Amino acid sequence: MSLQARIQDVFNEPACDKNQAKDAKAKKKGCSKPLTPGAAAGGCAFDGAKIALQPITDVAHLIHGPLACEGNSWDNRGAGSSGSDLWRRSFTTDLTELDIVMGQGEKKLFRAVREIVERHAPPAVFVYSTCVTALIGDDIEAVCRRAGERFGLPVVPVNAPGFVGSKNLGNKLAGEALLDHVIGTVEPDDVGPTDVNILGEFNLAGEFWMVKPLLDRLGIRVRACIPGDARYRDVAAAHTARATMMVCSTALINLARKMEERWGIPFFEGSFYGVSDTSDALRSLARLLVARGADPSLIGRTEALIMQEEAIVWRRLAAFRPRLEGKRVLLNTGGVKSWSVVAALQEVGLEVVGTSTKKSTPEDKERIKQLLKDDKHAFDAMAPRDLYALLAAGKADIMLSGGRTQFIALKAKMPWLDINQERHHPYAGYDGMVELVRQIDIALANPVWETVRAPAPWDGDGRPPAMASGPTETGAIALTRRKFAGTTADDMGEC
């Protein structure tokens, strides 16, 4: 299938309610939006494909394009690995102008695959196309086929050059690459009635490790967590699972639906953020597995585990409630966190005064409306100056967002907590909920905020000079003027 046909197939997503509500003409056009030149960095289709696949830990991820398309991948995302760190290394063909002019791109790609195989011996190599190599017409699929035959391992083409669309489209194209070349290629000899897949879970800061012990205690085996802390053979055997939980629907809904169509694996969307959502996710997994032939006692054991864990977590959270109840939170994130974190924060008495829905599906937005009782606290996109104005006016006590907007809160002299992919603390599961509340408490109680809000010793009202009325002179400028008052240019010489 050509790239254009693949994109149209991804846009025609039956599992997306928004897509099915369109007429035939609008459905054919799809959900693509033209990218603003210069504003697509970090949000193109290539970036989305690499995000969706890179946490597969033992695979070598090779970027076919100029060096700048890859950069340094060592710590650009906080996904955790319990095994190989090969996924964190930067592999790129590093195409130069001379390579492009002389048509050396495909040969250089083949040599790069050979070097990776000889040095690292990975179970598979994923090759990502980029804008440059797609524009010059390099056939990465043909090269990958030839390299796979030559070196005796899967070499998987991921055809998602940046210019074809947004990061979300890249997520879905990555799912298509797994369907076409990976899933279903390995038949394990230990298939069980309680095997499950977890899709759209990236194990950021190792937070899936907060949930997996709960599943282990229930006897539920995670056949494949895609992509968080995954192994190639686990992903290749994902078609043998009995049920699938989809954590981030905007990323891999096409993968979940097509796995259900091809192999009959039912799926549901859930969240591991918050006490109630974690409990609901465990119940849903248990019900699906029992419906597909697992021991009926699984449902009773799941309820017993939930009762035990909830009693512990509520006792631990009670210590934070007196300090946090009534505090106002501004949530500037997207996707599954736009609604799941809202519910989690409300459970401990925090008030959500606003949440971003920029990367949320219509279903996510409906959940937000139900949680917040209306939609006036949900904003699709808010300019930085508006976020700053809201924080500076004291309408929120803390902002939870990604690293790119932290400086808005810092400029407003308000607490901020990282909740996106760069974070260093896990927030999933029962223990993760306690950690989230603990970090919010630490941020709010930090004495630095009282210090930075206090007037500076040289300013009477603490306001910066630009905010004062009139061109008054303060600080070092005034001191210098008083020191040299009455001094002529001759007295100062050549200083």
Automatic annotation (TrEMBL):
Pathway: Cofactor biosynthesis; Fe-Mo cofactor biosynthesis. One of its GO terms (biological process) is protein-containing complex assembly. GO terms for molecular function: nitrogenase activity. It comes from the Bacteria. Keywords: Nitrogen fixation. Residues 44-443 form the Nitrogenase/oxidoreductase component domain. Belongs to the NifD/NifK/NifE/NifN family. This protein may play a role in the biosynthesis of the prosthetic group of nitrogenase (FeMo cofactor). PANTHER family: NITROGENASE IRON-MOLYBDENUM COFACTOR BIOSYNTHESIS PROTEIN NIFE. This is Nitrogenase iron-molybdenum cofactor biosynthesis protein NifE. The lineage of its organism: Bacteria, Pseudomonadati, Pseudomonadota, Alphaproteobacteria, Hyphomicrobiales.
